[in-house]
C-alpha cells in the first residue's frame, strides 16, 4: 500500500526541498533483464532472482526512520478507493530488476543508512506479492547490518514465513478499517489477514507503525475508529505509534490519466476538528498518534 504516504510526504515530494533530498528516482541505475521468455520470468519471480519494480528513491523521514531507500514494487491485490498510485496495481507494468542489482544498490548506500539510522523500505503496490525477492533483499540487508522496513496492508501476510518475518525490523502496517464491511468497501478485500499479520509481527517482537487513512464519510465514523483502535490493541507493545493520514486529492490526476473511474472524485480531506477527534480517540486507548 502503502501507496498512501503521509500528507507531509506528498507535500514534500512536490517541493524543492524534496527534490534536493531525492538522490535518484524512477528506475535509474538498474539494468533490466533481457532475453527472458515468459517461463523464465515466472521462474525467476518465484525464486526471487528478479522482482518487478515500479520505481525507487532515496528519501528522509518518509517511509521509516532516517534516510531510506524506498522501493515501490509493482502489483497489488487491493483496489483502495483512495489509492495514490493505481499505476502500481499491475505487476506486469513494472520493470524486472535483478536481485543482485538491488542488493548492490543497498550496499552502495549502507554507510549513509547507518549514519542516519535509516535503511531500506519496500513499499508498493503491495510488495508482499513478491515475497521471495523482497525477503532475499531483506536477508542481504540484515547481513550488512542495514535496517529493514516493510510497508504493507498485510493482506498477503500468508505469503510470509516466520523466518522471513524475522528479517523485518519495522512494519508500516495499514489498518484501513476496523470492520469487515468498511474494509471491503474501501479496498475490495478482507480485513482478517491484516489482523493476523499484525499479531504475527507482535509475536516475533517486531515494531509496528500503524497507518490509518482518514476519509470523511468513508472511514471516519466513531465506531470504525474505535474498532481500528481495538485491533491495534491486539498488537500490544509492538505498536510504537499510529499515523492518522488525512485524505487528500494529490492522487486524483493518476486515476484520470489511466481513465479509471475515481470513486472519491469529490471527496474532501478531514477538517482539523475531525482529525482532532480521531487523534483523541486513539490517544484514549493509550496510543501515541502522529
Ligand atoms: S490499492 Fe494497493 S497500492 Fe493502492 S493504496 Fe491500496 S494497498 Fe496501497
Automatic annotation (TrEMBL):
Binds 1 [4Fe-4S] cluster. The cluster is coordinated with 3 cysteines and an exchangeable S-adenosyl-L-methionine. Keywords: 4Fe-4S, Cytoplasm, Iron, Iron-sulfur, Lyase, Metal-binding, Oxidoreductase, Pyruvate, S-adenosyl-L-methionine. It holds the Pfam family Radical_SAM. Residues 62-290 form the Radical SAM core domain. It is found in: Cytoplasm. It catalyses: glycyl-[formate C-acetyltransferase] + reduced [flavodoxin] + S-adenosyl-L-methionine = glycin-2-yl radical-[formate C-acetyltransferase] + semiquinone [flavodoxin] + 5'-deoxyadenosine + L-methionine + H(+). One of its GO terms (cellular component) is cytoplasm. Its cofactor is [4Fe-4S] cluster. GO terms for molecular function: 4 iron, 4 sulfur cluster binding; [formate-C-acetyltransferase]-activating enzyme activity; lyase activity; metal ion binding. The keyword Flavoprotein does not apply. Its EC number is 1.97.1.4. PANTHER family: PYRUVATE FORMATE-LYASE 1-ACTIVATING ENZYME, PYRUVATE FORMATE-LYASE-ACTIVATING ENZYME. Belongs to the organic radical-activating enzymes family. Activation of pyruvate formate-lyase under anaerobic conditions by generation of an organic free radical, using S-adenosylmethionine and reduced flavodoxin as cosubstrates to produce 5'-deoxy-adenosine. This is Pyruvate formate-lyase-activating enzyme. It comes from Alloscardovia theropitheci.
